[in-house]
Amino acid sequence: MIQVQDISKSYEKGKVQALDHIHLTVKPGEIFGLIGPDGAGKTTLIRIIASLLLPDSGNVKVFEYDTREDFQSIRNIIGYMPGKFSLYQDLTVEENLQFFATIFKSDIKQNYPLIKDLYDQLAPFKDRRAGKLSGGMKQKLALSCALIHEPKLLLLDEPTTGVDPVSRNEFWKMLLKLKERGITIIVSTPYMDEASLCDRIALMQFGKILDMGSPHEICQNSGLELYSISSEEPFHLLQAVKGYSRTKSCYAFGSSLHVNLNDGDIHGLLDYLSSKGLKQISSEKIDATIEDVFMEKLNTLS
Amino acid sequence: MNSIEVKDLTKKFGDFTAVDHINFEIKQGEIFGFLGANGAGKTTAMRMLIGLLTPTSGTGTVAGYDVNTQSEEIKKHIGYMSQKFSLYNNLTVKENIRFYGGLYNIPGKELKVKTDELMARLGLTDYANKLLQGLPLGWKQKLAFSVAIQHKPKIVFLDEPTGGVDPVTRRQFWEMIYEAANEGITVFVTTHYMDEAEYCDRVSIMVDGKIAALDTPATLKKQFETENMDGVFRKLARGAARTE
Amino acid sequence: MKSSFIAMVIKEFKHVIRDGRSLFFLLAQPVMMILLFGFALSNEVKESKVIIVDHAHDLASKGLIQRIDQNRYFHVIGSLSNESEAKEIFEQGRASLIIVFPENFSDDLKHQYKSSVQLIADAHDPNTAAIITTYASAVFRDFQNEQLGLLKMPYEIKVETRMLYNPQLISAYNFVPGVMTLILMILGAMMTSVAIVREKELGTMEVLLASPMHPLQIVLSKAIPYLVLAFITVIIILVLSVFVLHVPIRGSLLLLLAESLLFISTTLALGLLISTITEQQQVAMFISLVGLMLPSLIFSGFMFPIENMPLVLQIISNVIPTKWYYNIVRAIMVKGLGFMSIWKETVILLGMTLVLLTVAIKKFKVHLS
Known about the structure:
Helix content of chain A: 25-40%
Structural class of chain B: alpha/beta
Order of helices and strands of chain B: EEEHEEHEHHHEHEHEEHH
Shape of chain A: globular
Helix content of chain B: 25-40%
Strand content of chain A: 25-35%
Oligomer: heterotrimer
Largest interface: A-B, 39 and 37 residues
Strand order of the largest sheet of chain A: 6-7-8-3-9-10
Distance between the termini of chain B: 36 Å
Number of strands of chain A: 14
Number of helices of chain A: 10
Strand content of chain B: 25-35%
Radius of gyration of chain B: 18 Å
Radius of gyration of chain A: 22 Å
């Protein structure tokens, strides 16, 4: 169990409020996602939980240890993967793994089953310098090094940023497998679609938590009634819907638009649109996605 | 007229062929999405187009200038913005705009007027004298884009401009892209957000250094029998030999 | 715990060896400096051009002129009839020294037991001028002594100046200890501080901190490869000095190496301290190179004698480690002294090392800021 109680942290003598009275709890063995854009405070929060950063106020307990007093004990049981590439560029894949295994008083062989999948993919490059790997491979190596000692808690700070969708997908499959071994995982990401892969999430922006719960709960409880609308002319459609007086919000989602109406009257909108000359419009009611909820909460915030 | 034309463009590093005989034509005012997995050769290809890398073989023109022989001319006539670096964090908003304006030879008086206009358009007038590093990422990226097209280039190259940006700002950013395209600027953009791929006029997907697909999003979805571009991407990228 | 320390040290060695540029800088730098100081920048002045104004044209003057010319420090390039042309000569840079013999030079010597010779030196470079006139005076004194030996003079006051330890004023004797001190100071401090700060900059320090490794282990493991490298540098410098510059080590080699090891530790501790006050490699490099270089140079006594400085600066020099090490090296290498003569300096260096180390460790941040 990880308990974050009333954590606040500011930089530059209070000018930048990175975290603003954050509360959250992470249950053992779950994948908890911190979902939010750059500057939301995700990195700061993860560092505080890792005991690397001291909060201005509040406290954090990682299992039974306090991050202020027992930080050395916490550092024995966590695996940490920071956002920037955190490995030694001039050491080979094998050397990096061996090094991290040793400083965690472990051995590659000892925990091999844990990193087997990752290692199999890395094996062809084991004598290559880490700096010469592609983005996706570096992430896999960094994850392996964070896992090599079978930590109780894995802290991953934006592990998939800048990585293509296929590699991201593979990475998450790996995380789900780790969860099966009982490792608690806290992961941060700006990609809203990854939120649904977590057990529970916290939506963050500007140092605050906008909403928290399982992805399903968050969408259900949002109270958003959304329609997905598409046509052959997406740009014109967007302009037109925005011009409709009863549109509360309207956002592009790929080839369609998610529309939230003041009165929920979709037919009123469709009539309006055809009067504007837009033809062949398809529409359907949809459940809100995490991204929809996030944007709604953001707007309420400002 | 074609904004960008590329024929059998290739780049090798020793034995390694990063970009393998790619061909395409992009029309003026088009929004062109340039997709691909990490290691597929996207960055290398883009570097050749913006005049930062000399091709090993093949020909191409960007804004009418030859990629093999006129790279300096190309640089003068394009705009460029990347995720990693676009503006200086320890300069103010105003200073950044003026610096890049000067870099692209916008004359002094005109630059002053344009600077004020730009800030007004983005709602940043109150932040004119604030250092960039205090601003949220989304604002920085929007500013960077505006600065990149300040000198009215024919083409603007955007390298993952919306990485890590919040969803609302992301969409505002794409509205800016649409406006630019409407004004006739060709937009060449790479992204890892597959929903953004749908906003493009046409999209290409690079796999193992080659272009595996190039068409409108609608056609590609039909061709690969998927509902969205994410599906198209997965089907193509999964077959890649180079997970590298 | 022991094995993770060893793993860190091994990793550090790998970094150093694989960073070709730094390694080159580390090892080539002392070689270059020694050769530069040893050969090119010699304080000795050889083959100075001399012009003679001989009003005497007698045996004594001719004899002296010949001696001057034969001396390896001088080269007589011509003669003038009148010393009024001297100024022009100097302005044109044609000679550094003009020697004027008066009429009746020999006669005066023989009958009045004294005469005088005028030396006119181009003193736009006062150091060189002083050296040249000193050499020339030495030649005259030799001659004088010889002559006196032939005559029977009951009383003589001989003024002898001997340059102790370095009779020929060979500059290399002075430079080797100085160069060694400077190089070790800068390299030790810079390499260590940059190595630590680099980890902070790259982000790997975070990962290390988030591990069971004790911060002390992290810090010390960084120092060890540079300790080894600096020691190798010392050996290189000594080898070059002895075999290329012919500067002997008069005292105990073992003592010299031991003291060097101590000084290296001092510089490493300084490097560690520097690393705690910045997060950027460039700043660390700047502080080590520019920040340390000047005080180390000025207050070591290498270039400028400390005794000639104002009292305040003399006191300050006591805080600068290079002063103590420079004295130690000179004592052992040039004077051939033993431990009993330098125990005070050794204790001071030891004390400095411990203080620096303690402060550095206390300041090492266990948390990020």
